[in-house]
Amino acid sequence: MRRLSRLFLISGFCFLAFTACGKDDAEQTEEAVDTTEQVAFDDVEVEDYTVLSYSELEVLAYQGDTEAQVMLGRMLEYGTEDVKQNFAEAISWYQMASDSGSVEGTDALGYFYLTGAGVEQNLDKAEELFKSAIDAGSVNAKVGLARVLLKKGDYEAAETELEEDTTEHATANEKKSTKKDSENDTDENELSQIVDLLIVAQQAGDLDGGYYLGYIYEKGIGVTQDYKKAYDYYNRVVRSTSTALNDRDSINLSNIAIALMYIKGYGVGVDTDAAMEHLTVASDNSSPKASYYIGQMYEKGIGVDKDYEKAMEYYLKAADFDFAPALNQIGYLYYNGYGVDVDFASAVYYQKLAALQGYAIAQVNLGFLYENGYGVERNLETALSYYEMAANSGYEGATEAVVRVKAQINEEM
Question: How confident is the model at residue 19, as a pLDDT?
């Protein structure tokens, strides 16, 4: 505790000074400021850092208050009504806190290296940070370490689709097979470690631990697949009343997971109304993925009447967070004139925004647009480059497109 001292395009799924004055006025101003600071800064102990403004937290952070540094990191990492999301600045504050011995700062840094948000992904570095945080008593770091092991072992399952066979292509991730497809290839000790880490975290009340425990039961990773257990763990998380920024993702992801189970009928009866309710909760809680899925429900007519305008509304809401699948889908609607006038230029614009994030569907779509000259001047070399980007990420069909465009280039030389 401290004293306060202030994207035909493919439809894809992907399942932050004093002014001059007279001497008397200056003296009066100085006296008033001093009095206010004495009352607000020197006589009030900070019991709840969440009520402090950004500038107030900065004052404390620069004085070496690691709790304020972490809180600034949280605000910048997740973004608030008053603070724009900024991963680079968040990392800076977390690093400062970690360097001063803050286990929360070290733990938070681990997640950035795990996901590659704001920094180059480095699983070894993430593992090092999480182990350090665990040694210092962090429960949440156990979830981080479990996630590192999931990624290193390539155990993570494909993203769930809202509806089977609704797209001509799946994303690169959906078509990527795991490198450990059989039990003989599986490192049982590693899987056991993942499960144990998540159980310990969940039992300690960690919401991330609860979500990922539900995730491994839903996907059958290291445990026997059990949708009912998965639902139970997800449901425990969504019942949480936590408003902490670092709990928001696990609550949103659990709501989304339950919604997808209701849509698919996994472990529960099909109930699209319940699915919409859970997605709406997450969408209202700043989840771009949830907004995207609601857009998909309206675009595909899943449990609701098809409504392209409503779909666009939710895609745009997700696009406010630069969510690549939503950006791709906006381009898809503009290309086809669904709910909007056909606008190839806008289709290109939104596809580029998604492609810049490495979203393979958008890269293939851009290749198609440049190959055929829709919304842009026909340019086979540019088309080829986009197709190659997608092919390099393992996207099914992109390699064939590369071969086709290379043949066209040779024919036109």
Answer: 36
